[in-house]
Design a protein that fits this description.
Elements: H1 5-12, H2 16-24, E1 32-33, E2 39-40, H3 45-57, H4 62-74
């Protein structure tokens, strides 16, 4: 069973609006969708949200965070 946007917002302190914004900006490619198309977060997604929050607090722009996530998801092939 996954978590809704509202549940994730309550658990993380990140507003539902911000979570939807992050999704639209491509920062949440790891979040699945359920049968009706709603976001369906899993426990492992909370680690990614922690990384995103940390990078935002460091001042990293959304565009660079998206690139970092893309590289991370691709794995070791992107080390160079």
């Amino acid at each position: 069973m996954g978590y809704t946007v509202s549940e994730v917002a309550e658990m993380t302190g990140i507003s539902a609006h911000t979570l939807r914004y992050y999704d639209k900006q491509g920062l949440l490619p790891f979040v699945d969708r359920n049968k009706v198309g709603n976001r369906d977060s899993k426990d492992s997604d909370f680690e990614w949200l922690g990384v995103i929050t940390c990078l935002k607090k460091s001042g990293m722009p959304v565009k660079k965070i998206r690139q970092y996530i893309e590289w991370s998801m691709e794995g070791d092939a992107t080390l160079n």
